[in-house]
């Protein structure tokens, strides 16, 4: 089968066709995501440096599994526009886990045991990039953060944000927070489940404007994550919740901690905590006295395997 010709004239014709289709209400056009390596100058105002991170691993359990690929993008963010500025610093390496990569992981990522044989992460480069970052972002930080912290301690000493949990994508009119879906809705497609392209895709998603605004200025996902990282969240655990209330808890967004055998959720303000405590007392504990657990997590602890400051509250 012959490939499409790639001359500039043909490419322009394709783009003309794409623009015509995009202008028609019955069509949506999706373009292959091309990584941006330099975002150009900003406003000249203050910036902060963000580090976007993704891992591929041999499995889901950070206690027992290993990183096989780590990618990071570091770039400055203009705090006036919420847009990346300047050159994107890129890191990507394989690491040999010391055992065969499971077949299901190779099927998902395309990474084989031969690809990683004898490979090792560049610890000096990683430490340097992390040291210069103001905020580390992963799209599922509760997965990635324990893996990288278990591998290198330097990751413990930075603020983290999660673009999956830290932005209300439903409020943005999007039915899923999965990265491929977000990209698709914004008009891009890419070959997912490889660390570096996933990072580029996430950076582009987070550079897009959100519906919310800040003092009349457009708000991007990058700015939203910088703002949210300044505030602690409280993990609320509904100890001793009756079994028959599990559907209520699940419908409200609670998750089940199988190890601790408790339903839990997260709130981001004192007002939200008070409202949640009142809902639990009325809807879950039927007005009876009950004890709930509270754990305050700031961005230096959030999504890690480490605990924040803990306490109880009697309803």
Give the SSE map:
Elements lengths: L7 H15 L8 E2 L14 E11 L9 E12 L5 E11 L8 H7 L3 H4 L6 H9 L3 E4 L2 H11 L8 E3 L16 H7 L2 E2 L5 H12 L2 E6 L2 E4 H8 L4 E6 L7 H6 L3 E3 L4 E6 L2 H15 L6 E7 L11 E6 L1
Parallel strand pairs: 1-7, 2-5, 5-6
Antiparallel strand pairs: 2-3, 3-4, 8-9, 10-12, 10-13, 11-12, 13-14
- Determine the mean pLDDT: 91
User: Which structural class do the helices and strands define?
Assistant: alpha+beta
What share of residues are in beta strands? 25-35%
Indicate the low-confidence ranges by residue numbers: none
What is the count of DSSP helices, taking H or I runs of 4+ residues? Answer: 10
Rounded Rg: 22 Å
Main beta sheet strand tally, sense and closure = 5 strands, mixed
First CA to last CA: what distance? 69 Å
Order of strands in the sheet with most strands:
4-3-2-5-6
Helix content: 25-40%
Shape: globular
Total number of strands: 14
Reading the helices and strands in chain order gives HEEEEHHHEHEHEHEEHEHEEHEE
């Amino acid at each position: 089968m012959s490939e499409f010709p790639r001359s500039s004239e043909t490419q322009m014709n394709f783009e003309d066709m794409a623009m015509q289709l995009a202008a028609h209400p019955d069509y949506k056009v999706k373009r292959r995501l091309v990584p941006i390596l330099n975002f150009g100058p900003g406003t000249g105002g203050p910036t902060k440096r963000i580090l976007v991170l993704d891992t591929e691993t041999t499995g889901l359990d950070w206690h027992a599994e290993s990183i096989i690929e780590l990618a990071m993008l570091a770039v400055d963010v203009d705090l006036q526009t919420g847009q990346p500025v300047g050159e994107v610093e890129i890191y990507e390496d394989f690491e040999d886990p010391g055992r065969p990569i499971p077949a299901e992981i190779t099927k998902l990522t395309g990474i084989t045991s031969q690809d990683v044989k004898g490979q090792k992460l560049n610890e000096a480069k990683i430490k340097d990039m992390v040291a210069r970052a103001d905020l580390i972002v992963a799209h599922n930080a509760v997965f990635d953060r324990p893996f990288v912290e278990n591998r290198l301690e330097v990751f413990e000493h930075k603020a983290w944000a999660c673009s999956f949990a830290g932005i209300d994508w439903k409020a943005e009119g999007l039915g899923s927070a999965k990265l491929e879906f977000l990209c698709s809705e914004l008009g891009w497609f890419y070959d997912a489940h490889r660390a570096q392209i996933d990072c580029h895709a996430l950076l582009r998603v987070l550079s897009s404007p959100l519906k919310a605004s800040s003092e009349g200025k457009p708000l991007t996902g990058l700015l939203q994550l910088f703002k949210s990282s300044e505030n602690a969240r409280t993990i609320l655990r509904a100890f001793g919740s009756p079994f028959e209330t599990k559907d209520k808890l699940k419908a409200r967004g609670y998750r089940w901690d199988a190890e601790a055998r408790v339903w839990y959720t997260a709130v981001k303000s004192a007002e939200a905590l008070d409202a949640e405590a009142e809902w639990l007392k009325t809807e879950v504990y039927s007005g009876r006295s009950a004890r709930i657990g509270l754990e305050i997590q700031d961005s230096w602890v959030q999504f890690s395997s480490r605990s924040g400051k803990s306490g109880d509250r009697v309803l």
